[in-house]
Amino acid sequence: MKKKYERPVILKVQTGMMNKFGSSPYYTRKVRKDIDGVSINELTEKFGSPLFVFSETELRQRYRNLYNAFSTRYPNVTFGWSYKTNYLPAICSVLHQEGAIAEVVSEMEYDKARTLGIPGEDIIYNGPHKSLSALEKAVEAGSMVNIDHFDELFDMEKVSDKLGKQIKVGMRLNMDTGIHPQWSRFGLNLESGQALDVVKRMASTGKLILNGLHCHIGTYILEPNAYAIEIEKMIKFTYEVEEKFGYKIEYLDIGGGFPSKSKLKGTYQSPELLIPSIDEYAEKITTALYHNLKPGDFPKLYLETGRGIIDEAGYLITSIVSSKRLPDSRKAYIADGGINLLYTAFWYKYNIEIDRDVQGTNEPSIVYGPMCMNIDVIEEGTLLPPLEKGTKLILSPVGAYNVTQWMQFIEYRPNVVLISEDRQIDLIREAEDLSDISKREILPERLKLK
Amino acid sequence: MLKHIKGILNSYSEIFFIQSQWVGILLFLITVINPYVALGGIISVISAYLFAKLINIKAEFLKAGFYTYNPLLTGLAVGYLFKLTPLTFLFMVLTGILTFLATLVLSNIFSYYFRLPILSIPFVIVSSLAYLAASQYSNLFITGLYPNTLLNIDLSLPYWIEGYFKSLGAIFFMPNVISGIIIALIILIASRIVFMLSVAGYYAGTLLVALMVGSYTQSFSDINHFNFILIAISVGGIFLIPSLKSYLIAIVSVCISTILLDAVLVFWSTYGIPAFTLPFNVISLSIVYTLGINRYPYLTYYFRDTPEETLDLYLSNIQRYKGSYITLSLPFTGKWTVYQGFNGKWTHQGNWKYAYDFVITDDSGSSYKNTGDLLEDYYCFRKPVLSPVRGRIVKVINTLQDMPIGQVDKTNNWGNLVVIKDDRGFFVEISHLAENSIKLNEGDWVEKGSFIGLCGNSGYSPQPHIHIQVQELETVAAYTIPFSFTSYIENNIYHANNLPYEGAVVEPHLADNYYENITSFILDNEYNFEVYKKNKLIANLDLIIKMAIDGTFYFDSGKGKLYFGKHENTFYFYSVEGNDDYLNIIFQSMPRFPVSHKDNLTWNDNVPFGIVAKGFRKNLVQLISSFNHNITKVVVNSKFESKRKITSIISSKLLNINLQSSVEFDDKDGFKNIKIGDTELRRIYDEKN
User: Fold this and answer.
1) Chain B contacts of A250, Cβ < 8 Å?
2) Which fold has domain B2-317?
3) How far apart are CA A412 and CA A410, in angstroms?
4) What is the pLDDT of residues A374-404, one digit of tens each?
5) pLDDT tens for residues B435-457?
6) B334 and chain A: CB distance < 8 Å anywhere?
């Protein structure tokens, strides 16, 4: 029998003791031939490459795990689906079906939620930029608006004047929870008394009624205790406001920021080791609630988990379009999807799986995207076996932020599909073509080429 | 004044255990046929009233007609014997007052010692006394006595039919056929069950006596047999819930009463007095007392105007209210699975059979992930346990180790635990908590939902779980008693008060502020509606919140009362009194709802038959349903359509009813719109609001 061809590889000579981690990384492979039972080949044959694939099973399962971790510990929990992490209508609908309400941070997202059929009162409206007209729209629909700064407070007073009624509002706080960086650019600072000043103003004008507190201490928070500190401070502030001003705080929105199992660049340990389990977060958070709340007082607890739910339900399938050898002897691959689709590539190291069994040992490799730009690097250094053109790389987790922050730069954005629980493949966003790009472009008559 | 007249009229109809003014009026008119009887009754009642005023008895008591029923009967009895003269007038006044006194005294004694009503015992005693005394009053006798031959028209009916009518008339001291026919018609229209029992009772007793005596004519001509009628009605239709069994007990009661009646007649007639209703009182009360001390389950506790309505309310109540009076909320939050219920096959046996075990399971039904060898693999391990009641902590054990999977602590079976004393008179024990997780001390007060500790695996526990039981004593592992859980969701169905089955996945449902506030319904608040039929204004409905003597609140429409209340996170309409179709509409469109919204949440309830049915069909079905309790069922399936809207389907197979209703709630208080079929109640608001 003819021996199968094996591409040549260049390996650094390893000498000395056997390593204590067992099998050599030079032979380990991560191969993924399917997603939820649907083969990668079938997916790319039908929908092309690159291709974003979301797993409905994973999405629902992750939502339920997270939700149950809290609902079995605290009686009054609701999740607000953080639209900015992924606002494809199909994804939002799955989560709304599971019981999440909407958490939006811009007028565009607000309109998107309403178009999906979410009632105004089931929308939490956050963010540092809300126009006066957007505020008015949200107030009229009964949405929960969390005030971010003084100017927004004044705008809300104007809305109150215009509608001729008192308005219930929440406010966003920022505080020191012992972690770095402290997200002090959003909301009103607690320790400096800024937050209390806002409440005093509300009490003196009587136009607004404070009924909720919001805080989001950051993203990818690895320290569960930070949430316990956040909650202790929020509840202390709650009771201070209730006693001094007679407001009733109906909800505490403690934001999100739970990490997904994606590897932050520069971390040494694997995410499995590094990231605390969701139960640890839930136990810290609910214990802090029980310890600080008065008996029988159960304000509504909102969580705005985005990444923790969606990130691991998303995959990007890319194909190798070429390989080359760099002068420093490293192997380089060019894939058909890069940072144009993976905005988060700047700070996350993805899990890279290949779609087939490949012969040969691994060698240090670098994976570039298709952009004609130097910064388009998906993976700066990993160990890959010699790959043929056409081999598919499956990158994960990529469910959060990428399909909202992706850019239309020199390429079209690809198809996005959702694999349902019974393995049906639904196209949930069509690949773009030139008409999508030229639709909004206007060529003045005088400039038209004859 | 009007109220007093109503009270007096009620006392006429109450002789047949029916509460109805028109029946009262008709029966009163019958007595007018013999004016002396009618006047005797009125004089007696009025003198009782005036005496009551003299000794400052509150008007509230008199309204009910309860205290006037006996003076009325005595008055009728005296009027039957004597025509009206100044002397007999005086005599009637005196007997009226005496009966009133006897009523007060006896009703106190009977309700205190026997928990029994007094029926017409005061009447029997005072009338007997009056007849005995009168035999001494020669002057009264000579001036007052008159021959009583009114209406003795011969209709040539067979003697065995005449006997029934005469006996019926004799109840109102009108022992003639005509009166009897009229009375029979009145009770037939008022209540088929009462009429049926009167016939059955009369013939059962009379035939038995005829057999004993050997003469049918003699037996059928004895007007004292009206006692059989009264016994049959009171036992078969009033004190017991009408059913085949109650009818049987009624007939047996009638048959045994024949002995008493005939014995009494011998004794009493020696002194020239009739037996009056003595056999009826003795037999009926003996039966009710006996059934009462044996806790017979079908005794009537809620009396309505007629046996039909009593039965209807009883049937809808047993369908509507499950669970028990010892109500707990689930001792956790989120979705948990019942691992073992009452009489569970593993450990809930004998003295400890009334207990529940809960675990958390995943979609595949497993209570653990991975291999299940570690405590941490179990979903419920270290999840918070919350207080199911408000009360005081009387016992805490907190230091026992959580046993590894596969090992149990046989010395300290119950593990770490708390015992909470509920002021309603019972103790709740929650066991197998995690080591050192209880942050409470003995003597601490807990509210419902307070954090108690974490679910653990201490004690005799094969896997982490919450064990909860209710005991009469505070000692650990005391004898357990039944209880039930309130306000929980199982499979998207809301249960107000019930016991979940083993394997059920249940989740507590907490009240929310919005529904809590709009269902406050504060006393004297007014709610005004316009009633539209096919979009045409047909009437106005003005409701006002009132409170009954027993503390139950109701909507008063002027024509009727709609009783309501909130219990453990559920709002209920209890019943409708009076005749107001619009109140019926409100009742059937939302007989209950959780005081908290959840999208698409559904729940089931039943309403009394008489709320949806009308006319002849209602009468017929109510009569049949007394023979078979399972045939009448009006089911209301409700659902939260949106945050402020409930839709229901009201259906009954038997009646072929399938109605759709919707209720929209106001932003602040009460209902905004109630729609059922083509009828719609639209709230109208005061200018001020």
Assistant:
1) 513
2) Ammonium transporter fold (1.10.3430)
3) 7
4) 899 999 888 899 999 999 999 999 999 999 9
5) 999 989 999 999 988 999 999 99
6) yes
